[in-house]
Structures are given as structure tokens and as C-alpha cells.
Amino acid sequence: MMRLERIVRASARIHRANYSSSAVPKTKLFINGQFVDSETSDWIDIHNPATSEVIGQVPLATQSEMEAAVKSCEQAFPAWSDTSILNRQQIFLRYQQLIKDNLKELARLITLEQGKTLADAEGDVFRGLQVVEHACSVTSLMLGETLPSLTKDMDTYTFRLPLGVCAGIAPFNFPAMIPLWMFPMGMVCGNTYLMKPSERVPGATMFLARLLQDAGAPDGTLNIIHGQHAAVNFICDYPSIRAISFVGSNQAGEYIYERGSRNGKRVQSNMGAKNHGVVMPDANKENTLNQLVGAAFGAAGQRCMALSTAVLVGEAKKWLPELVERAKKLRVNSGDQPGADLGPLISKSAKQRVCSLIESGVKEGATLLLDGRNVKVKGYENGNFVGPTILANVTPDMTCYKEEIFGPVLVVLEADNLDEAINIVNNNPYGNGTAIFTTNGATARKYTHLADVGQVGVNVPIPVPLPMFSFTGSRASFRGDTNFYGKQGVYFYTQLKTVTSQWKEEDATVTSPAVVMPT
Ligand code: NAD
């Protein structure tokens, strides 16, 4: 079968499976291996951010639907955790191939619901796919430790064992990548998984669930519910859920961390950011300006690792006019249009919020060098577009600096030297990512050691680690002890059991009870 034909057929099949056939497609729930209609009377509209057109609806799952989903996870757990690790690995090996085969179709769905450009949406799937590929190394990642001969005839060894039912709560900005940080890592370790995608972009997760079923995941190993606060509270409170992976805003993440932890669950919570790009005057100017512009405005700034704050050090302050010229050249358009560099924001309220933060900057004394608030996109007049915006002369006390803007807005601060720049970065509460642009190794080394930020790029603007490492945001950008994916992801989704065994030769019989602590 031709590749295109295969994609079209798969898409039609998935669409039929995931949505009801009403006028506005209604997203289904995925319970015990079945894509089922919700019986709820509460539905949320899903909009195409480029047109504001309603393209679907997502249910707020009822209490009994959420219970059915988690019970399905509970029932599937004994057999799944007992399935040989090689068989679990085989399912994820097939899964990664299916994701590759359907990458373009998944990207198309992401662009439709989330708005980002098709090329960026492919990157979204691709970075998630890499986590699935990494999950296939589970046979190495789950190895325990051994130490022989602790005393005569005695050995100690550890097993890494799954926890039980785990749950994931995802944000809107990476509809494929972030769910793929969650359930594949949890499941390959032998857990069953309850997933709650963002109610604004549920389509990619539903598509991914169908592909996982096609790859051979048994019924009940993955269940999907939809909803908002009630679904989140359900996950935080339900007794058999052992661990929660959350990615999203601080408001939700702090709440989920507190509530989930109070109920005795493991919680890993990746949250908001304010990522600084420190530009040294010795940096390669051409590369640095291009990297800054790409990392500030790509995905319309809706990335937790967007480089949303530039700190120009010394003579680098003079580069501002060229930075503005480059930003002006970016093309704002619907994400599915050829040549689009950035698409719309997710919603009308997101646009309103971004515009009011720009306005606050102006009111508080910043200089608006480039204003994207009135951008017009021909044919998409109802879209939530904001063009690249640059606020200069920003100071740390301004609202536009203190808040995560999550839009295509670059705020620019100035520093006289590296120490001053480091001070600015370390006084900001967030610690997700940062980058330094320099050609001086000693400067780079000093920065990487002194910047109190979890992920540092040296001439790399968005240093999101590949999945053999872990995503290591820190300070206000993360709550928990164990990070997403990499070895840390396996540690999060497993618990250790330590076995100490003694096998004596027959003639080495224990002749009297040992009543003191063995030494
Ligand atoms: P969000 O917090 O609004 O939503 C995330 C999830 O939490 C959704 O599933 C939503 O239903 C739920 N939720 C929303 N508000 C809630 C509340 N008050 N109580 C309980 N649950 C709630 O986040 P978003 O707008 O979808 O995503 C953008 C945010 O995510 C940004 O702050 C961004 O920096 C952050 N993010 C962080 C990372 C990271 O790895 N650090 C990655 C991507 C996005």
C-alpha cells in the first residue's frame, strides 16, 4: 500500500474510533481497551486556534467513568507486571515504529488543535518518539544491583519493581511529546496507566492510545479520562493510584504536588519557567541572534523552554536593533500554511493575557521595540495571533519579567558583566532552562557552574536533554525528587526490593538461635 494511502486510511480509522459521529466530533474515553462515548452532560469545546472554529468537544468524565477507568488499570496490573520484560519491550518496539509511520498524521492533528506549525508539530511527535525508543532499553534501565558474599554464603541483590497504577496529567503545549514522557515510561516498567490529557488538545493522546493498542498493549494497561479539576482531584485522591506525573502551570502543579503527596503518592511536577539567554559580547553574533529569535518566538513562545528573556552583557547591548530586524522577518500564519514560522496562541484568553502583559511592560517603563499585538493574518482574522514582540529596558521588578508570559514576547534586560547577569538569573524564582552565548570557555564554565538552573545550554538555546538523560528543571520549575524520563524516569516509576539470601552447604547447620543484631 502506498504510504500516503496508508496514512489516509489510518487517519479515517482512528477518527472513527476516537470520535462519535455527531455533527461536532465528540472525543471518546478509552476504558478497558474500548473507545467509548461519555455519558456526561458536561462538554468543553475544542477550538482550532487559527480560526476559533469549534472542531470538537471533549467530555468531563463522570465519577463512574473515572472509577471504571482506574479499576480497569487495577485489574490489568497483575498480568501486565507479570508479563516478561522482553514482551513489554517488544510492544514498545512495535509502538515506536507505528508512531514513526503515523508521524505526519499526528502532526497534522496537533496543528489543528494546538496551532503550532506543521514542522514544529512533527518535532513535538519526534521528541516524544525518542522517549519511546529510550523506553525500549528497559532491559538495561531496570537492572538491579548485586553484591555477593556479604558474609559467608550470603548475597544481596535488588529488583526494580513497578508500583501499580500510575497517572499522568498533561498540558496543552506539547500534545504528543509530554504524554509520551509519561505513559510509555510508566508502562514499560510494568505499571498500568491512567492518562488525562489536556482538555484543549486531546486528539494526539487518543491517536497515540490507538497506536499503542495496535502495537499489542493489553486491554486495561492504558486508560484515558478527560476533564478538568474534578478529574485532577480524582487522580490526586484515588487510593490505588501510586504515582502522578504532572506537567503544566505552577498554579496546577503546586496544587497537585501538595494534594497528591498528602495522599501518600509519589508526585513529579514540571512547571512554569522564565528562561534567560545571557549574551556575552564575545559571542558569535550571527549565530546568537538567530538562535535567540528562534528560541524566543518559535511555537509562538508556548514552550516551557522558550528563551523568553535575554540578558545582554556589555557591548552586546548594541545588538538590539539587529535582533529586532530578525524578529520582524518571521512569518505569522496558520500552522498548516507553508512558510509559517509561528502560529496562533492556544485561546482567546491566552491572547488577551499576553497582550495585557505587554501593556503592563509599557506602563511600567519598558521600551516596546516590536509590537505584535495588532498582527493581521489574511484569511485567519479570527485566529489568536500575536506577532513577535520585544520589550527592552526591562527590569526585574516589572510584571512582564516576573510572570511567565507564554507567548511570542522577548523581554530584554541589560547587565554590565557576567556576575551581574548571573545575579539576575539566580534571583529569578524559576530554574527550568538557561543558555549562555559566548566564545570563551572560561566564561561558559563559570556560568554553567554558578547559574542555579536545572538545564544549561552553552551556545545551545533550548537545552532540552535527550531521553538518555532526564529533564531536570529546578527551583520553582519543579517539585518532586525524581525527574522525567532517562534513568530518573525509571526510578520514578519503580520501587526497590532488596533480597538478602544465604545458601549454606548442608554441613554448615545453624546450631543456636542468633539473638543479637548480626554484625
Ligand atoms: P495548565 O496547568 O493550565 O494545565 C495542565 C493540566 O492541569 C491540564 O491537564 C489541566 O486540565 C490541569 N489543570 C489546569 N488548571 C488546573 C487547576 N487549577 N487545578 C488542577 N488542575 C488544573 O497548563 P497549560 O496551560 O496546559 O500548559 C502551560 C504551562 O505548562 C506553562 O506554565 C508551561 O511552562 C508549563 N510547561 C512546563 C513544562 C516543563 O517541563 N517544565 C513543559 C511544558 C509546559
From TrEMBL:
Question: Which Pfam families does the UniProt record give?
Answer: Aldedh (PF00171)
Spell out the family assignment given in the record's similarity comment. Answer: Belongs to the aldehyde dehydrogenase family.
Question: One GO CC annotation, please?
Answer: mitochondrion
| Record flagged with keyword 4Fe-4S | no
GO BP, sorted A to Z: L-valine catabolic process; thymine catabolic process
Q: What is this protein called?
A: Methylmalonate-semialdehyde/malonate-semialdehyde dehydrogenase [acylating], mitochondrial
Query: Which PROSITE patterns does the annotation name?
Result: ALDEHYDE_DEHYDR_CYS (PS00070)
Q: Does the keyword Chloroplast apply?
A: no
